[in-house]
Design brief:
elongated; mainly beta; 1 helix; Triple-stranded beta-helix; 280 residues; 4-stranded antiparallel beta sheet; 7-stranded mixed beta sheet
Length: 280
């Protein structure tokens, strides 16, 4: 069994070959276009429309080698077949043997009544990735955006989550927000703004109204009731449902009443699934 490690300095410094660098670097990113860098090598019709396309600026990565295009690049397509359509590809081609570079090229297809796109070469010496397919109709004099099918794949860090597919945080709060009021005869909580709400010195009977906002299924709301030394009556809107326990009808002097609720969208109710707690 052999062991390897790279890269070190020193005097004299060890020498490393380009394939040795690429062997390590290719593990940093998967092959593809770098997202959000310039115009991401997007391919579009030329202006005026002709048998050519424009490859926009951007960067790419193939097997540990980096590519950059800094301005619009025109790629000319071959003449159309008079009788049958064909499908070309606009590609990035890595050459590790002769030219030692990555270039953007046209990979021309074969005309046919039902054409297929040309196959990509993906070998050690030559490795190609596709930016798009371009349909060249029979006897065509130009290609437009509707003839271009995007095939770009984005370079990612292996074994990480593609954030473009992660659910957004719409209507979900990352930071818990707590509201408070000393006393009130009528309480209407904005469920979009608060996860907890405190009554710190309740001095009268209170009615807890239906919360406003757009709660999501499973959203929690915790209410704390503390009176001003005298027990106070609590009335609940019908949107609150108490399961396995009775709805609390009032406070106990000198104690904090805690009510935990969860919103259930199937019932359109705020449900209290547990026993009510009082703390001295």
């Amino acid at each position: 069994m052999a062991q390897y490690s790279r890269f070190f300095g020193g005097d004299p410094a060890p020498e490393y070959t380009q394939p040795q660098f690429a062997e390590v670097l290719e593990k940093l990113f998967s092959n593809g276009v770098f997202k959000d860098v310039d115009d991401e090598l997007a391919v579009s019709e030329n202006n005026p429309v002709s048998l050519s396309v424009i490859v926009a600026s951007g960067e790419g990565w193939i097997n540990g080698f980096w590519y950059q295009n800094t301005e619009d690049l025109t790629k000319t397509l071959g003449a159309a077949d008079p009788d049958n359509p064909r499908i070309d590809r606009i590609i990035l081609r890595l050459d590790t043997t002769d030219d030692l570079e990555i270039t953007c090229e046209v990979l021309e297809g074969t005309p046919a009544a039902e054409p297929d796109p040309p196959e990509l070469t993906q070998e050690a010496a030559t490795y190609e990735i596709s930016l798009c397919q371009v349909l060249v109709a029979e006897d065509a004099t130009g290609v437009a955006d509707e003839d271009i099918t995007d095939e770009r794949e984005y370079a990612t860090v292996p074994n990480t989550v593609d954030l473009s597919s992660v659910q957004t945080l719409t209507n979900k709060r990352v930071t818990k927000r707590v509201g408070s009021v000393a006393s009130s005869a009528s309480l209407t909580i904005d469920a979009d703004s608060y996860d907890e709400y405190n009554l710190t010195a309740l001095g009268e009977t209170i009615t807890v109204n239906a919360p406003t906002g757009t709660p999501t299924d499973g959203q929690t709301l915790i209410l704390y009731f503390k009176d001003n030394g005298t027990g106070r009556t609590i009335n609940w809107n019908a949107i609150f449902s108490f399961i396995g326990c009775d709805a609390p009808t009032g406070t106990t002097a000198g104690k904090v009443l805690i009510v935990g609720l969860k919103y259930k969208s199937a019932l359109s109710k705020w449900v209290c699934p547990n026993a009510i707690a009082e703390e001295g």
